[in-house]
Structure formats: structure tokens, C-alpha cells
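User: Teach me something about this protein's shape.
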Amino acid sequence: MNIKLYKINAKQTLFARKCLKGFTLIELMVSIALFSIVMVIASGAYITLLSASQNEQLSTGAINNISEATDSMVRDIRTGSCGAGQCISGTFHAFTFTDSDGCAVTYKSDASTGDKIERTSSCDGTNAITDSTAVSISDLTFNTFLQKTTNAITGTSAEQVWVTILVTGKTPLGASKVQRVFHIETGATMRSIHIL
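Assistant: First, the predicted structure itself:
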């Protein structure tokens, strides 16, 4: 049997120990630098997504607020009727009619700030129907049309009111300091027909 003994010098032993021990300082520095770059990019994307999410929440809140207000106006107008001097054809910044309870109701922009929609009733007083923290109303316009028809057989006339509501406003400033402007248009026809 032939056994050979290898003589290992001190340099080879030191190198072998280094390889078994772990990473070098340079390897650790490079890996930490790469990890830091990835984390900076990821945190920037996360912050951007948070800002976009906040802006969308503000927009959603504004749209929900104004939708609820316009739905309330349309519901009141559909079930209401025209009293003396009410429902004149034309374009106005306020609309007055008689609701289903017999109260005179006026919808208009807030007189003091103009940033919310008010409902003034002869029975209930004045109430804001939009929240100025969720939405700022810059313009409220009512286009009123009277459709008159005459029955050829009986000779009686009747009229029905059609109202187009135009609302312009903007969302509050978010973290990105962006305001979104919106324009909403809806319409309502009074269900009751006024026979002349």
C-alpha cells in the first residue's frame, strides 16, 4: 500500500479556513447596497400608491356626496308640483316648487360661501344637502322647460315641467395637491300634470 502524505503550507490552510468561514466584507457591502436600492424603489412605489389611493378616496367621497344630493333634488322635484309663480321656463341658479307635503322648496347654492347646495323649505327651514368638506360646488344651474299640450277634442290645456340640473364642483386638495373638477348633469320631470 502506497500512502502519500501531502504537506500543506500555512498559506493554503489560511485560505481554506477563509472559504469555510463566510462572506467577505466587500460581499456584504455589495449585498447591502443592492438591498438598499431595491427598498428605496419599493418604498417610493408604495408612497405613490398611497397618494393615489387617497386621491381616489377623495374623488369617490365627492361623487357619492353630490350623487346623494342630486338624487334628493330629483326625487323632490319628481313628486312635487308648481305653485303660483313657480317653475318658470329659463335658466336659473335657484329652483322653487311645491313638494309633495305642500311646502315651498328652493334649491340653490349656499348664499354665504357658495360651496354647498342648500334646500330651503317653508316647513323645515334651511338645510345643506352637500358636505363642503367632501365637495366644493362652484356652479349650480337649473334649466326649466314647460311642455304645454292641448287636447284637440276637449280643448283643455296641460303643462308638465322638465328640469335639467347642472352641477360643477371640485374635490378637496389631497396629499398630492391635486383637485379634480367634475360636471354632473341630471334631469327630472314632474309627475303631476298641471291642467290649465
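Now, about its shape. The mean pLDDT is 82. The radius of gyration is 36 Å. If you'd like, I can walk through any region in more detail.
User: That's plenty for now, thanks!
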